[in-house]
Amino acid sequence: MASKLIKLFSPMTLGGKKNPVHLQHRVIMAPLTRLRTGESGVPTDLVVEYYVQRTTPGGLLIAEATNISPTARGYFGSPGLYTVEQVEGWKKVTSAVHEKGGKIFVQLWHSGRVGHPLNQPDGKSLPVSSSAVGWEDVTSRPVTAEGRHSYVTPRALETDEIPGIVEDYKRAAEYAIEAGFDGVELHGANGYLLEQFLCDSVNCRTDVYGGSVENRARLTLDTLDAVLSKLDSSQVGIRLSPFGSTFGCTDSTPEETYSYLIKKLNPLDLAYLHIVEPRGLHPTGPIQPEGGTTAFSRPLYDGVLMTSSGFDRASGIEVTENGAANCVAYGRPFISNPDLVHRLEVDAPWNTWDFKTFYMPEEGPLSLGYTDYPALEAKLFSALNLGGKKAPVQLQHRVVMAPLTRLRTGEQGVPTDLVAEYYAQRATPGGLLIAEATNISPSARGYFGAPGLFTTEQVEGWKKVTRAVHAKGGKIFVQLWHTGRVSHPLNQPGGILPVSSSAVGLDDVRTSSVTREGRAKYITPRALETHEIPGIVADYKRAAENAIAAGFDGVELHGANGYLLEQFLCDGVNRRTDSYGGSVENRARLMLEALNAVLSSLDSSQVAIRLSPFGVTFGCTDSTPKNTYGYVINQLNALNLAYLHIVEPRGYHFRGPLVPENGTTPFCRSLYKGVLMTSSGFDRATGVEITKNGLADCVAYGRPFISNPDFVHRLKTDAPWNDWDRKTYYVPANGPLSLGYTDYPTLDMKASLCTHFSDHNGILMLNLVPPQWRDPMQWGFFCAASFVRGISCFMRYAGVFCVFFGMALIFVIGGLVAHTIVSMVLLFNIFFNYALCCATDPGIITASWKKEENFNDDEEEDLEEEDDDDVETGFLPRIRPSAMAPGGTCTSGSSRVQLPLVQLVDPQSVHVYFFTFLVWLAVGSYYAAFTSYKSAYTELTREQYVKMLVLAEVAPLNIPAAATLQFAFAMAAAVGLAVSILATWHVYLIATAQTSVELQINRHPRNRRLHGGRVTSPYSTGSVHGNWELVFGRCNYKILSLMPSTRLPPNPRTLKKRQSVTRNISSARSSEEKPHLDEAAHSPDIIV
């Protein structure tokens, strides 16, 4: 079950009309004056580094207070936005932040009286303010080029000068957008110019900018209007400090003043209103209202409310959870913690900031206390540049999704929208995905359902995938694949033999080839002729070019896990005597030729390779792996590839020789000079450790990505992982293609949820609504089926309840009315149960509107039933009527479906139920009548009872007519009791037979939407009834141990007819070899 997401770390959208800014979390970096830009106010590369360090994907930074004009400057070293040079300097900052997936606003600033003549353009003019009201503060002095000096009394702005100030704000806002900022924040807080006009302790004017609150707020509102005339409202925010006293700027009636101003902001639909709590550096001043400034502002402001000053993790979570604020801006914690967002997420301790380096350090470089604070996060979550010559791919973290074969593309190998959704779910900003192994040609295919990159349709299909990944800021490579001997003629064009380095078969009883007709044993391949090998190289080159055309950022050649390139490399398979066999140089020739061919069309930054030096997958081994791979890796050093991907031999097929003492990764690290990626069997601790000690630059995770679409987030926060279901690694045996593919839950799952039951251990789970269920027709079937199923289960339990309740009434109460009620209820229960069972019997329904030939066709085949202790199957072909055992048991390809504590029904055992019926009838009748009359006529002796019940001597007992009628009802109740119990028990037992009728019906092509719109499917399609069963059939399998099912086997006539057809087809094919369905013991490259 997904854990509850803390709202502080959940996505949100800022306000605005046209293009509101979307954030991935609500932790904002507040504007922080740092004074690192010198006299010119131009941001340097050091400033770029500072902001980049604090950027997170989808996070918002508010750049430090930035002067709107030369006369606005209050502090030496503060940046500006009024010259071309400053704009160009800021462009470097915004570009770097955007490259990491972050958002950035800038705070526009006029300091007013909080300055000094030395900071003015001429070095002697007085700073300006609303009035000539000075302020003496012994704790704070303005920073100038000559050091700190005392504040001076400013001069009051003339009325005709004020429009010039408004124009400066407007121009600076335009410069900000030109510089690449996502928006601007007007600084109307902390005692600077806009607040100096707003607060009556400073504003003593008598013109239209002084006196009433309307006049004092005029400059702020005029400035906002001017900026909004050039920018969209989604690009504009404002900061206020209603109850602050910074720099002596206070108001006598702050509630009235700020209530007026905040209400005026509502129609403007700003990106946000930023409120400062007066508990920071200057806590003196009037007492804030009860609940704080944020609580005061929330009822007044309708838009996005940001709060700041003095918040820690707990208070930040609280203020967002209770809705008092939409997001929280942190200031000083961001100074000393460049990874503050991560620290907040994992509740890690903070670095302590050094107040002496908040601004320019007195001694030391400008980086002191600026860009030198250490990050908490492990190297695994830090940025990385892949290798290559021209434009290496830049990653924001080192958690890579390994290539995972999922077989969801059918006969044509064309990725569908479902595939695009799958990869988009797992994409992260700046994260690398390696798309599943993809065939380079028709003859390269080893598995039915694997995608390709050799047709135009396949390229177009992959374009949807790459666009979806890039839209989320991710990077994606694709693995180029030739399976070689790991194939079957059914997967080859024209049914030809698969190829390899030599005609050496794969003798592995644990695995088999996945074909359109099910699983088939591997066969001995044919050896490639020498003149054919250049064609294989050309296929790799062409597929690589198609990959780039499809939008991939690069390609990874699959030279591992027993496939073709490794079949040439390892002397356990390669027995050739030509230039591609014998010495290690010859055996490595095909791999290096393929790499060089791809490099002739792609930059080295777009090319990588995967190797498994000490693996034994598919029996592909080498007698001297250290020598062989030592040679290959040394050859790779000269190519400057994007990365070398190493597979540790500790996955699913760990058999064979021991790896080097320290493991495969250290062995390769000592040889390879470029970016080294390792994979197979890593968890969080080992991934962190191996990147920390430098043995690998990044770690590829496989299976965890299958069941955790938000796996990177889970690793960062050390959250628990979803368990993967191995039965749905490939095409699920029963259910839509999305099952076990796009329906795993995330930690912060916010989409609509639908309750369904997982195939995994029968545990109730909540999962994302599968794409197939987003069709209104599907929901109609789902709702109708759920209603009938619910009514059935209710009535079945109601029947049991009525039985016990009726027994209680008969044995305890007695009486004519009670017996009448009980009898009617029990009889109704019997009628309802049998009527409902008949109505929902798949055999009856299909017999009435479906022809027998729809269940059988020319491709009929028998499925061999496996032993109960076999390993579960990851891929199941079509279920045919021949899978129906005589007793109604669905063999379902690999394992029979049988519930605990419930015996399956044998149609030959009907006499058992008849005998049981007689027993219940006799026992129920005797005790019902006996106890009823015992309660009504306590004066009767036992002998009289015997005469009444056994000898039917009623007349001599002088029993009144009413009592005789009561006896009749008692007998009816007894019969109803017996029949009801028998009906309930009977239906419950035979319902657990779990026939394959619904799977047979599912072969009807009407249900094309379940497999991406294709006309035919080798897996499961469905009719109207098939839809119904397909939607809630999974629920049925898992809750039968808790409540009975309504599903019955088909009626005997229909079943007998089908079995007859099946026997005829089976006998006609008796001479043909049937494919054997074995367990899914796939290679590590498929499951990683």
From TrEMBL:
Highest taxon above the source species: Eukaryota
Record field: compositional bias (Basic and acidic residues): 1070-1082
InterPro entries from the UniProt entry: Aldolase_TIM (IPR013785), OxRdtase_FMN_N (IPR001155), Oye-like (IPR045247)
Keyword Transmembrane helix: yes
UniProt keyword annotation of Phosphoprotein present: no
Transmembrane segments: 794-818, 825-845, 910-933, 969-991
UniProt domain NADH:flavin oxidoreductase/NADH oxidase N-terminal: residue ranges: 7-347, 392-719
Cofactor(s) listed: FMN
Protein name as annotated: NADH:flavin oxidoreductase/NADH oxidase N-terminal domain-containing protein
Organism: Phytophthora kernoviae
